[in-house]
Amino acid sequence: MVRFTRIAPAPVSPLARPEQVSMRDGVRLATDVYVPGGDAVPGDAILIRLPYDKSGDYAFIHLVAEYFMAHGYRVVAQDVRGKFRSEGEALLFVNEVRDGEDTLDWIVRQPWSNGRVAMWGDSYYGYTQWAAAASGHPALKAIAPRVTGTLLGEPVRRRADERAGGVEWAVTYLYPVSHFHGNDTYLWEPDWSRREFATQVEQFLTEVGERSISYDQWYPRPVLLPRFPQGTPFAARSVPVLHTIGWWDNCAPLSWADVAEVEKHPAWAAHHHLRIESIDHEGHELLEPDSDRVSERSEDQVRALLPRTLDPALAFFEIYVRGNGDIASIPRVSWNLAGTHEQRVSDTWPPQGVRETALVAIADGTLRIAANVDEPPSTKTWIHDPADLVPSSAEDAFSFLRELPDEAPIGDRDDVIVFTSDPVTQDVDLVGPVTARARVSSDGPVMDLFLRLLDLRPDGSALRIARGQRQLQQAYDPGDLEIDLGQAGYRLRAGHRLRLHVSSSDYPEFIPQTGTGGDPWQGGATARNLQTVFLGGPDGLRLTVSILQGELA
Question: CA 122, CA 148: separation in Å to the nearest integer?
């Protein structure tokens, strides 16, 4: 028997007035309207469009609306098409531009609206902001997307002529059958001890009694429907953006890809403001009290969280929506140096003064500054065993900082190659991009390479600083991989070391290779593979970090 939890709509908040808003095709979307003081005086509105139940406890939208109302905003919270009380099919991503535009049209016609609208929200309801902006609607004056990306949730695309590519997240295929499977949410995971994931999904769908159109568009034969009319939201009229990224958000690579894309569009870059916080996807902070590291926050805990979550957006909207104050007072980049309570500002990311330092992996297991060594070529090998995979360090990757896992024990495994630097003699601020270059090979057809950069503390525990992964096809022949480990803003304390973990699985966060070249999601026959990473010489494993202050040993 397949076990799952089904979550239906929660009661509408007594503060809200429920509406059914018609889209251009006649489908009606359930919408809660929060208006301070009634309809008498038109005012500015904040639109939140989400798939997680506008009335439920998970997204606590009623508390967000209450906070925004206290600052004079009308709040419009809407279940996206096909979710909870809204009509239509629950199809990921592709309807959000049109539905966002139609909802903006509806808002500006209401007596409580003055025609100025902002948007706010995390994850998928950060994505719906990019989608609404792609419509070019003139009423949309500013957006504040958090921990999201314009390509959120899209499967890895592979080109037949490229050997290197991305590694697929398991959530890519699980999200459509849990959060975008009919109106309700289904909390379900496969039995991770069994490798036939696609079969388990089919068993789940049979038990539920209906298919997920969102899953079927992606597996087994992907149909990548266009999300944006012009291919990208950045082809539309530009909108001021307060763009929040978390250092430990597992979706951060998608956010950073959007930052790079914005820089290619001067009209968008002109009023793009970047905010980087020491948070994970669910908003847990690195330095938060242990009492707040809970899976379900109480209403009091949520209320205490709202000022740090919402005040930056309110300050942003005050200028770009209401026209009060000086745009120059909003920093172009505001960023937290993780491990401190400092929220710094700069005109660019990375900030001025950053310098790159290259480190090379040495056969003796050390990590040394490249300029100081001349390492002869060698290799390190390990076995990728589909029956004994390297475990993901966090049970829930979206709440990494709630769990705050010690990653040092993972390095004790035989299938994890470890390289460690000398302890630093002074605090070192790692600020900016972290990249690596590796030549690898396998006796199997496909090889995944995972790199995890850690802060190894004097007590032997380790916290992840950055990570990246790439896949090599036709891995029998050595191939070169360029690995983006993301961006860092982290203080490595005196006496601490850098440690690099090298492996070829991270399970169950990422779908593991079978060892035979077979479809990893389908499962089937498996084989152990001998994996090789090259060290030393011009092609050896090399890590490049960005340093703002201090020196590595």
Answer: 6
CA distance 29 to 50: 11
φ and ψ of 54, to 5 deg: -60, -20
The dihedral sign for the CA sequence 207, 208, 210, 213: negative
Residue 475 to residue 36: CA distance in whole angstroms: 61
E-strand spans in 365-475?
Answer: 367-369, 378-384, 417-420, 428-442, 446-456, 462-473
**Helices 299-320 + 61-69 axis angle, to 10:** 50
Burial of 539 (0-12, 13-18, 19+ CB in 10 A): middle
Say yes or no to pLDDT of 292 above 80: no
Reply yes or no on whether the pLDDT at 263 is more than 90.
Answer: yes
Taken in order 215, 216, 220, 225, is the CA torsion positive or negative?
A: negative
Q: Would you list the DSSP string of 144-162? A: EEES--TTTTPPPP--TT-
Give the C-alpha separation, 79 to 451, whole Å. 38
Query: Which regions of 23-178 does DSSP assign to beta strands (E)?
Result: 28-34, 43-50, 74-79, 113-122, 140-146, 164-165
User: Token pair 């990375």 is at which residue?
Assistant: 350
pTM, two decimal places:
0.96
Residue identified by tokens 């202050």 is: 549
d(CA 320, CA 239): 9
Q: Do β-strands 5-7 and 28-34 pair in parallel, antiparallel, or remain unpaired?
A: unpaired
Q: Which two tokens stand for residue 224?
A: 């990548």
78 touches 21 (CB < 8 A): yes
What per-residue confidence (pLDDT) applies to 35? 95
pLDDT in tens, 86-109: 999 999 999 999 999 999 999 999
Take residue 41 and report the two structure tokens written for it: 């005086």
Q: How far is CA 147 from CA 103, 173, 259, 509, in A?
A: 23, 20, 12, 18
* Residue of 211, 212, 277, 202 lying closest to 246 (CA atoms): 277
The encoded tokens of residue 446 equal 């496909």
Beta strands at 462-473 and 367-369: parallel, antiparallel or unpaired: unpaired
Q: Fill in the amino acid letter for 396.
A: D
Task: Read off the pLDDT of residues 409-452 as tens digits, 9 standing for 90 and up.
Answer: 999 999 999 999 999 999 999 999 999 999 999 999 999 999 99
Burial 127-141 (b: 16+ CB within 10 A, else e): bbbbbbbbbbbebbb
Residue 518 has which token pair?
A: 């077979």
Provide the pairing of β-strand 446-456 with 462-473. antiparallel
